Amino acid sequence: MSVAFRRDVDEEHLEPRPELPVPPGPNLVTPRGMTLIEARVAEFETALTAAATEEETKAIERDLRYWRARRATAQVMPAFVGDTIRFGARVTYQDAAGKTHRVDLVGADEAGPAEGRIAFTSPLARALIGAAEGDLIDFGGKTEALEVVSIGAISD
């Protein structure tokens, strides 16, 4: 058998895992978002000291590089003040069916749509940014699909 087709062990031929993708654009965060990033860094630093295998260490180091980069580039934004929607706003809007929704416009790393926290770069957030109470917003290919009911600061 030719040496070209022989493997001593499969592990030496594994492809390295790619780095975690960093969202494009500025890394805007709320104070809560910065706290979450700090907690993730601490979590992975602790996990790194307890890693049992080289494979586990590499996986943790990969995640830790991502969270350290996010911490280094984080721009903590001041609390929302004003009457037009921007980063840090809590927005209540009504859709065309009359259903009311509430969302907080936050950084990419703290977004959780199930909790009503959407990234300021999401399509919905981009549609809402710059609007004021009472404005009708085009969204999802529909004209005047959303109506802004109220705007305020994120309180939690």
Automatic annotation (TrEMBL):
Keyword S-adenosyl-L-methionine listed: no
Domain Transcription elongation factor GreA/GreB C-terminal: from-to ranges: 83-151
GO biological process entries: DNA-templated transcription elongation; regulation of DNA-templated transcription elongation
Keyword annotations: Kinase, Transferase
Compositional bias annotation for Basic and acidic residues: 1-18
GO molecular function, one term: RNA polymerase binding
KW Kinase (keyword) present: yes
SUPFAM superfamilies named among the record's database cross-references: FKBP-like
Region feature Disordered, mapped onto this chain: 1-28
Source superkingdom: Bacteria
InterPro entries, A to Z: GreA/GreB_C_sf, Tscrpt_elong_fac_GreA/B_C, Tscrpt_elong_fac_GreA/B_fam
Stated name of the protein: Nucleoside-diphosphate kinase
Annotated organism of origin: Sphingomonas cavernae
